[in-house]
User: Fold these one by one.
Assistant:
Number 1:
Amino acid sequence: MRSNKFLMLATIGIFTSFSANATFIGDSAGGLWDYDTGTNSSTFIGNSGTMFDIALDPISSALYGVSGNGNLYEINQADASTTLVGDTNRFINGLTFGSDGTLYGSGGGNLFSINTSNAATSVIGSGSYSSSGDIAFDDMGNLFLSSTTGPNNSLWLIDEMTGSGTEIGDIGFDDVYGLNYTDGTLYGFTEGAETISIDTNTGVGTFVSNNQIRAFGADGAGGVDIPEPSSLALLGLGVLGLGAWRRKRQ
């Protein structure tokens, strides 16, 4: 009985501490930040060295970053220290994970798949976009990319199977180097330290706040298919309750 109570409390504690608005942002000086889009508050984690983008694995919860010379790193979320995974041998300035744990990268007009065990990278395909600095999935599995094409950065819808892209529209902001979909909204983060919301139907960006972080990349768990924390906690309690009921019946 004592062990059951401990597991129940641990389940509640783990999942109620999670913020649905949490986003990691890597800045132009190499700093890693934990940022909350809902409150516009941030916590400095440490310096990882400058990463051209970062991505959070929805399955392992590991954080990865890619440097300007194409090296892939795993980043410690407690202190921003890094472990080299390998060399992608590509120019990549956008990273994101699919809900199945596939790591995608973008650079120039190319979309890549990247092996997180050794950084081996394959070209999926290409399009007429030019990656500005990030890609992100929404909760329906649509892949979006910020591109340098157009008078400002523009938003593109990317086919993750072929790498082809369709332009949605002009964002109205430049240097949109970070994207993250969370709480039903696609957010953009600029090197000018702006947080913007982006309409995925028109591509138009709307200023939200000045976050004081000169973004070079961003990612979080919002755009992948992960149950809400409350649902996970209830599921854990349900499993524990079922186990207790079975033991009582025996």
Number 2:
Amino acid sequence: MYGMYCSTILGFSHNPATVFFNKSIPYASKTSTTKNGSFRAKPNDENDPLLQAAINAASLRLQETLQPEPLFHDPYAGCFISPQFRFDDKKQRSSSLHYLLTTKFIDDKLVGFVNQTDGLKQVVLLTDGMDTRPYRLRWPTLTRIFDISPDRIFKEATEKLQGNGAKLPKGCLLRHIPLESSNIQQTLSADGFNGNRSSIWAIQGLPVMTLSSFEEILITVSGLATKGCSFLGVLPAQVVETNIGDEYKRKDGKTVLE
């Protein structure tokens, strides 16, 4: 049931932070690959929420892509799905509509931002490691994309993507920032992120288990984002169900971080 995907969609342009509550996915640990490179859980990791969440999300994108009139098109989602994977029926797609709409929303915001930005465009994706946006969205020239995600998932996903012909748009650059990095802010800067230029940050699928983890993300963003930067995306239910409500104040139907 999609009820397990409870979470939050949020968005803001630097100060203040405007947060919109919605729904998402749970996360956690180890992965392995089959001989043909397909993702699967190890025998003792069949209930690994991080791996399963990433595969489930990819399967939802694939199912949507195969619809007669899809909300978005992800030609690479299928490379993460085992031939033995069993798709759910139309009822499942209906219950997954929130994820699909959120994905479309984030896609549109990202593309809209970079197309309205002159010169260097900076996009930071906080993901589960299987995000195909760097390859499937139409990024203009001079777009730098930074993917913050679990290292092992990203590396295996990249191998599968490249094996299926995925390529970045001409003149664009992708850099991976391992979630395990001791100092993500420093690693971002070392990999070419320019804190003096505008940027857009989107979170969908990143393992955020606690309110303090989310606060660390906000600290990283605020330490690098300049005026005019945007932050949007989705948080897991376990974060929303903490005392996060005490950290925000309702204003005009929106939730504003003080």
